[in-house]
Design brief:
By secondary structure, the chain is α+β, with helices and mostly antiparallel strands. The protein has 3 domains: about 90 residues, Tetratricopeptide repeat domain (Serine Threonine Protein Phosphatase 5, Tetratricopeptide repeat); about 50 residues; about 60 residues, SH3 Domains (SH3 type barrels, Roll), CATH 2.30.30. It has 8 helices and 7 strands, in the order ααααααααβββββββ. The strands form 2 sheets. A 5-stranded antiparallel beta sheet has the order 6-5-4-1-7. A two-stranded antiparallel ribbon has the order 2-3. Helix 2 runs antiparallel to helix 3 and helix 3 packs antiparallel against helix 4.
Amino acid sequence: MIALVFALLFAGDLDRANRAYEAGRWAEAAALYRAALDGPGSSHATLWHNLGNCAFRLDRSPEAILYYRRALHYAPDNTQAQWNLHLAERRLGVTRAPPSLPRRLLAGIDAYPRLALALAALLQAAGLVAVLRTSGRARRLQLAAVIAVGLALGSRVAMTQCFAQPTAGVILEPSIAVRPDPHATLPVIARLDAGQLVRVEEASDRWARITHAAGSGWVERAVVGLVE
């Protein structure tokens, strides 16, 4: 009974949020959508997408980019969120270089770890059997390479599953100073524009160590929104 009451209250809040958005009261809608994130059975992908739409309407494009990326974290194939992300980035003049082939391969392994692990085991088993049955040095070297690929796949999956990985972040303010160490008195080694995507290697309450397209360094933690 209690769960049913909470579900009805959540549905009512979501309905009010949708009506506020349709009426052009985007700040009110954003507050209601954010409150709904803690509701029972809430769809985080949909709510973050809706929050992105509110931020975009309120001309807060860096926040919109962050929220669209959060939506895509939960639903990577959401074409509407992908398009809206493109619009928000275009408004800010953010350009994204297409990922290199190695990065696309690593992303595929990270997205489907069980499939990658099964492929790794299959490659190792097939390579080992073939090596035992095949003569000739060149042939053995080729098959050993197959086993090495399988081991590399397995190692990547193990690293992804067992160790903390850097998380994606979005720069929320314009012309953010990047410094070589977490000290405000140190010289600025780069500046990042609002909306840029970075990787957050580590963070404290005050500082975050990031990697960006041109290098790495430290920025104030408050100017980076975490995607995950």
